[in-house]
Write a structure and sequence with these properties.
By secondary structure, this protein is α/β, with parallel strands linked by helices. It has two domains: about 40 residues; about 60 residues, no CATH class. About 40% of the residues lie in helices and about 25% in strands. It contains two helices and four strands. It has a four-stranded mixed sheet, covered by helices on one side. A hairpin with a 3-residue loop joins strand 2 and strand 3. The protein is globular and about 35 Å long. The mean pLDDT is about 75.
């Protein structure tokens, strides 16, 4: 009786090990997909905006126009600061237009959203 229960227990361990191997190979494939898709994402770091060489300060305005306003200045001798005021109406169009006109993909930017 004891030899049969030992064999049964050993076979269950072997089956469990095979299940774990299958699960880990699936998760490895998922990790590779996740890592490759992260190359296309915008990287986000939690740092003060003043640490960035290129700074963007975003504000929301309430003017009746559908256009954003931009002010560009150099601060601390070598840092560029872009202050942009987006109007609350048609916000998505304004943001896309601003990105196309002012931002360069090869540069990194510190962004600060000013709240009311």
């Amino acid at each position: 009786g004891t030899s049969i229960s030992n064999v049964d227990a050993l076979s269950r361990i072997e089956l469990h090990n095979q299940e774990c191997k299958t699960d880990s190979s699936e998760s490895d494939a998922e990790n590779q997909e996740t890592e490759s898709s992260k190359d296309d994402e915008i990287k986000v770091k939690e740092l003060p905006v003043n640490h960035a060489k290129n700074q963007i300060i975003i504000k929301l305005g309430e003017q009746p126009i559908n256009e954003y306003h931009v002010e560009i200045e150099t601060v601390h001798n070598n840092r560029n600061r872009i202050t942009v005021i987006f109007q609350k109406n048609d916000l998505e169009t304004q943001i896309v237009k601003f990105i196309k006109e002012y931002l360069k993909p090869s540069k990194s930017y510190g962004v600060y959203f000013e709240s009311d």
